[in-house]
Amino acid sequence: MSLAISNLHVSAGKVAILHGLDLTVNKGEVHAIMGPNGSGKSTLAHVLMGHPSYAITKGKIILDGKIINRLMPEKRAQLGLFLGFQYPIEIPGVSITAFLRLAYNSLKKEKLTPIKLRRLVQEKARPLHIKDDFIERSLNENFSGGEKKRNEILQMGVLEPAYAILDETDSGLDIDSLGTVASGINALRSAKRAIVLITHYQRLLNFIKPDFVHIMLRGTIVRSGTFGLAKKLEKTGYAQLAEQKIS
Q1: Do 146 and 173 contact (CB within 8 A), yes or no?
Q2: Fewer beta carbons below 10 Å: N end or C end of the chain?
Q3: Which residues contact 20 (CB under 8 A, 6 or more apart)?
Q4: Strands laid side by side in the 15-26 sheet
Q5: CB proximity list for 8: less than 8 A, separation 6 or greater
Q6: Which CATH superfamily is domain 2-242 in?
Q7: Do residues 191 and 27 touch, judged by C-beta distance below 8 A?
Q8: Neighbours of 132 (CB within 10 A)
Q9: What is the spatial distance between Cα 33 and Cα 24, in angstroms, rounded to a whole number?
């Protein structure tokens, strides 16, 4: 079972962003996608989840054998896709618990009562050092960067997606918050789940060692390898790769 991206071309309006991108992510694997600003990493994340601002002009996204190019985001979520946002939005007046109850009951065959759901949320919150009063706050309202990212991983833990795309989860985190968030992600590694980490820097990968690393430039993947590729990139930077001609 896998998430397979084949010859994917994507545009936003008249601007082409992704150019023939290929990637296969199997359950049980952790993949890291690295690249500089403007390389198309976040676009890829949003396209996988069905963001309406982007148009697939060529290629396929295949989830567990099913082409999902035209599916709405909620249908993709029901099939097991999850996106952790780089900039999570605030929803005043909606508590984290209420949001998760609605999301869980819309995705799962089993509908949890408010009491059972609260217990589940508390269980998943402990590894992230999230206290009970936190989960009663309005979703992301006046949250720090670290609180927002921990909340994203809390959602992932409660919803238990088969494929989790985490868009720059390390953005804006201090070293302590990064360690906490990374521990939460590591706790969710499973043979039944694939995780895709989108990041600029190796520092996240020092906490979460990926099985595969992919370098993205100019809207396509130009290099793939193991963790050693990320360590090499930390020394050479993206400029050396950017100067190379991509056939």
Answers
A1: yes
A2: C
A3: 7, 8, 9, 58, 59, 220
A4: 15-26, 2-12, 55-63, 66-67
A5: 18, 20, 21, 22, 44, 47, 56, 58, 59, 60, 61
A6: P-loop containing nucleotide triphosphate hydrolases (3.40.50.300)
A7: yes
A8: 11
A9: 12
pTM: 0.92
Sorted by where each begins, the domain ranges of the chain are 2-242
Q: Which pair of tokens denotes residue 33?
A: 């996608």
Q: What is the pLDDT of residue 245?
A: 46
Residue ranges of the alpha helices (H) in 138-208? 145-159, 175-187, 203-207
Distances 29 to 26, 213, 246 between C-alpha atoms, Å: 6, 11, 27
Q: Which two tokens stand for residue 65?
A: 């054998």
Residue with tokens 């049980």: 28
Instruction: Point out the residues of the chain with pLDDT beneath 50.
Output: 245-247
